Amino acid sequence: MAQKKILMIVGDFVEDYEVMVPFQALLMVGHEVHTVCPDKKAGESVKTAIHDFEGDQTYSEKRGHNFTLNANFDDVAADGYDALVIPGGRAPEYIRLNDRVLEMVRHFASAGKPIAAICHGAQVLAAAGVLEGRSCSAYPAVGPDVTRAGGKYMDIAVDQAHVDGNLISAPAWPAHPQWLSKFLAALGTRIEP
């Protein structure tokens, strides 16, 4: 298996599981993962949020861990990466306001490189204008964002993932096994039993 270089864009109050689990899993199978946040440098951290499903009308939110960044946002050149990961949580609602984040997302989309977005990550895809004519899953409250951006919102079970070409999406962290498996397939990663 050839090691891939993967960019993960995060921000304060990114969903804890949706950043920690993919970051560690992708490293575990031998990929290089650079985690960046607008206006932050390697060695700094973002705070995470834990979103849980406890029977309320929406998810509950609690303070999570600190997640340490390992690359400088200002130094990132999207064309130097093979794939992009956009975790959910609260971060997507404001990192989508950063023009450079949107330019990076457009690069991955136009180059046909794998993009894995989960939960609220679709907000960044919608803001970047890369969902036109595409189908995409997301947390249900983000469905209108997908639709308004010209995409088809895929209302699937919370533990499932959806693939549309190079776009791998899922509603929330319970989908990690499916989402990561489909992303690894898009990367050409084989895991031998």
Features:
25% strand; Rossmann fold; alpha/beta; 193 residues
Structural description of this entry:
The structure is a single chain. It contains 6 helices and 11 strands. The strands form 3 sheets. The chain has a 6-stranded mixed β-sheet, with helices on both faces. The model has no long low-confidence stretch (mean pLDDT 96). The protein starts with a strand and ends in a 6-residue tail after the last helix. 29% of the residues lie in helices and 25% in strands. It has one domain (5-187): Rossmann fold.
CATH C-level class: Alpha Beta
Proportion of residues in extended strands: 15-25%
Dominant shape: globular
Mean pLDDT: 96
Any chance you could write out the topology, listing elements then pairs?
Blueprint: E1 5-9, E2 14-15, H1 16-28, E3 32-36, E4 45-52, E5 60-68, E6 83-86, H2 91-95, H3 99-111, E7 115-118, H4 122-128, E8 135-136, H5 143-148, E9 152-153, E10 162-164, E11 167-170, H6 176-187
Parallel strand pairs: 1-3, 1-6, 2-4, 6-7, 7-11, 8-9
Antiparallel strand pairs: 4-5, 10-11
Helix pairs in contact: 3-4
What's the quick description here?
The protein contains six helices and eleven strands. It has 193 residues and is α/β, with parallel strands linked by helices.
